[in-house]
Design brief:
heterodimer, A: Butyryl-Coa Dehydrogenase, subunit A, domain 1, Butyryl-CoA Dehydrogenase, subunit A, domain 3, 4-stranded mixed beta sheet, 3-stranded antiparallel beta sheet, B: about 425 residues, alpha+beta, Butyryl-Coa Dehydrogenase, subunit A, domain 1, Butyryl-CoA Dehydrogenase, subunit A, domain 2, 11 helices, globular
Chain lengths: ~325, ~425
């Protein structure tokens, strides 16, 4: 038992952190929100070069083998830097196609996986039971929808609608299109994709929560009121201490879920990670807003990029009550 | 990163499980906070010690098995899953013993530890004073030099276990002229039946004497009962309080077992349409898993040679709030019965000839009707557990103090007025 990231995984996190810092991701997110996908596409290429999209696919499709722990490491960093785009969706689509191939339907994986792995293609995805929308369909080259026991390559999407997180845009996939797979394998592959989606969303939440806490700590050390730093007031300190407790107990759940993700029965750990990371990120957002005062309540200040993402991710891929229901077996 | 145990660790787990299945009392012992219950729990310590299960992490020469942190955690999981009794010797084992291992003399270890392991000497904690709770630097009780030892005077309070225990350990001001308030303190062990000691039990919220006031009037202790250098008590005590806030006092096994009982209570009593309560049951399960994995992560860091510091404050805030939440959920699930403190609804104890379940079976998911663990629908353990949990955010350094430590040492926020 060694429940600890290894040196390589830590180095991977540092690499991504460096890449994303250099990319000025707040500006990238603002451009993305305004409908300009070019800077986001450039970041996407750098993430692909760092190997982020290889982590959910096996070697026979140009992947690095399915590595959920490394994927979680990456998504914590993506959340910390508020990277926009259908990141979770692309990884979940890769997991879906990989699982289909493992269940004897290799065609779609052969055709689509290599371009997802190299970062040439971006996918967005809708799964049963988690809402009708796909994220960032206008920036994705593949719109996948799982419904009625089939995986469809949708022919496009309806009107793109604004999310309360301006860097997320939602649309319904259009009906019809090519059916990539149908039958019992689809259901199992969709469940597998949902576990990957929940894990990566949870990891992203953890990163979002940590970024909000870091920025708030920096702010309350500098901002003075009544002649002293705001951060010296006990009410402020205790609120931030609570945020840290929440995040530090969500962290092992995220990595625990990654360790057990390959297990078909592993809903409990994934559910725990999704609930706990989403809740703790949300509490971090509420504290960040309160402790930044009115400056935090402006769209001009960068913290808004994380504040509203914490709320949006809390409901993405099913809300916390839905995931809590998965965390405990129902009475019989 | 993995969560797999070595074959040796799994063997150890199965050995613990088999021993517990064969030895855990079939009927729950009377409350630890009564004279009768205290005696029964002391006898249970003796049973544990006879097969070296009372202090598994200690070296063999003192009655342990030399188990490392991972094995100790596995033992604790099995211990609570088996519904085994609370540990009357916990103060000594988890607070005094680590201090003696780090700072005691060979003579002190040889004299104090084996009887502690056997439950023959039960130790009480004597930290707090009427004017010094979390602020231990303001302690006033004194240790004055006397030929061959020291004379203790003053008053200790909220001393856990002191109503029935044999000996106590605590801090005394040995140098009133020390420059700073936390210098000049001696870490002293003393007998609770010595001339000059008066014990006044204090009823906790439910009236049970879980702690006591200790009055000391010129009580003699020999030099051999001072741990480390007189005047060095603060530094020595701080290493102990870290243990108390952190792992030693609350292993994950306890909360995993409690969450498991709550799920069984929900299955027995729960209304499936009451999703608000279901969410709280889920949070109990999620919280126990979070605590377990947090602990595994720290165990891994510790095994990798990292020193854990202020993280024990994160731990303390988490488990103390968690413990209350899980008991509140249980009381709400019990409805009107959640007010009862007797055990009228308890299932009959397992008959002596009942066949034991296979103790080596890895499947622990199905509730075992012959388990000595009280039936989850029995209100008494929940109401007593609730009363006990209410003290969690207060003792071992209040959660307000812990949040200050977290904010200042982990987040780097400036010190300010308390």
């Amino acid at each position: 038992m060694r429940f600890l990231l290894d040196d390589e995984q830590r180095a991977f996190a540092r690499t991504l952190d460096g890449v994303l810092k250099a990319a000025d991701t707040p500006a990238v997110a603002r451009a993305w929100a305004a409908g300009d996908h070019a800077p986001g596409a450039a970041v996407w290429r750098r993430l692909a070069e760092a190997g982020v999209f290889t982590l959910a696919a096996p070697e026979e499709y140009e992947g690095a083998g399915q590595l959920p722990v490394d994927t979680a490491v990456a998504f914590v960093e993506l959340g910390r830097h508020a990277v926009p785009g259908p990141l979770v969706e692309t990884v979940a689509a890769a997991a879906l196609l990989t699982r289909l191939a493992a269940l004897g339907v290799p065609g779609p994986a052969k055709r689509l996986l290599p371009s997802l792995v190299t970062g040439e293609a971006r996918a967005t995805l809708a799964l049963p039971g988690t809402g009708p929308y796909v994220l960032d369909a206008d920036a994705a080259s593949l719109v996948l929808a799982v419904d009625a026991g089939r995986v469809r390559l949708a022919p496009g999407h309806a009107r793109v609608r604004a999310s309360l997180d301006p860097a997320r845009r939602l649309a319904r996939p259009l009906p019809g299109g090519e059916v990539l797979a149908a039958g019992p394998a689809v259901e199992e592959a969709a469940r597998c994709a949902l576990r990957w989606a929940a894990l990566t969303t949870a990891a992203q939440c953890l990163g979002v929560g940590c970024a909000l806490l870091d920025r708030t700590v920096t702010y309350v050390r500098q901002r003075t009121q009544f002649g002293v730093p705001v951060g010296s007031f006990q009410a402020v300190k205790h609120r931030l201490a609570e945020v840290l407790v929440g995040l530090e107990f969500a962290r092992p759940l995220v990595f625990g879920a990654a360790v057990s993700l390959g297990d078909e029965e592993a809903w409990g750990d994934v559910a725990a990670a999704k609930v706990c990371a989403a809740e703790s990120a949300y509490r971090s957002a509420r504290a960040a807003l309160q402790l930044h005062g009115a400056i935090g309540y402006t769209s001009e200040y960068d913290i808004s990029l994380w504040l509203l993402k914490a709320r949006a991710l809390r409901g993405a891929w099913g809300g916390t009550s839905q995931w809590r229901a998965r965390a405990v077996p129902p009475p019989t | 990163m993995d969560l797999d145990f070595t074959p040796e660790e799994e063997q150890f787990r199965l050995r613990a499980r088999a021993w517990l299945a064969a030895h855990v009392p079939r009927a729950p012992l009377p409350s630890l906070e009564t004279e009768e219950g205290f005696a029964a729990h002391r006898a249970w310590e003796g049973t544990l010690a006879a097969d070296r299960w009372s202090v598994v992490s200690w070296p063999e020469e003192f009655g342990g098995q030399g188990a490392d942190l991972v094995k100790w955690l596995l033992f604790e999981e099995e211990y609570y899953a088996a519904g085994a009794p609370g540990r009357v010797s916990q103060n000594g084992i988890s607070l005094l013993a680590p201090t003696l291992f780090d700072h005691g003399t060979p003579e002190q270890r040889a004299r104090v530890l084996p009887p502690m392991a056997r439950g023959e000497v039960v130790w009480a904690q004597a930290w707090s004073e009427p004017e010094a709770g979390s602020d231990l630097a303001s302690l006033r009780s004194t240790a004055r030099r006397a030929p061959g030892g020291w004379r203790l005077s003053g008053q200790k309070t909220w001393s856990s276990r002191a109503a029935f225990a044999d000996r106590a350990f605590g801090l005394f001001r040995s140098d009133p002229r020390a420059e700073r308030p936390h210098h000049g303190l001696a870490y002293v062990m003393f007998p609770l039946d010595a001339p000059g000691v008066t014990i006044r039990p204090i009823g906790r919220l439910d009236g049970r004497p879980a702690f006591a006031e200790v009055f000391l009037d010129d009580v003699f202790v020999p030099d051999d009962d001072v741990i480390g250098a007189p005047g060095d008590g603060w530094r020595i005590a701080m290493s102990t309080t870290g243990d108390e806030r952190g792992l030693a006092l609350r292993s994950p096994g306890r909360f995993l077992a409690t969450a498991d009982r709550l799920v069984r209570l929900w299955h027995a009593h729960g209304d499936p349409s009451d999703t608000a309560l279901r969410d709280r049951v889920a949070d109990a399960v999620i919280g126990a898993r979070a605590y377990q994995l947090f602990t595994w992560a720290n165990a891994s860091r510790s095994a990798a040679g990292e020193k854990l510091g202020a993280e024990s404050s994160l731990n303390k805030v988490f488990w103390s709030e968690y413990d209350i939440a899980v008991h509140e959920a249980a009381l709400d699930l019990l409805g009107a019965d959640g007010e009862l403190t007797d055990d009228g609804e308890r299932l009959p104890p397992r008959p002596p000839d009942a066949s034991s379940p296979d103790p080596t079976s890895p499947d622990r998911t199905s509730p075992d009707p012959t388990s000595p663990d009280p039936a989850p629908t029995d209100p008494a353990p929940w109401t007593e557990g609730y009363v006990f949990s209410l003290a969690g955010p207060i003792y071992a350094g209040t959660n307000e103090i812990q949040r200050d430590i977290i904010a200042e040492r982990l987040l780097g926020l400036p010190k300010g007025r308390r």
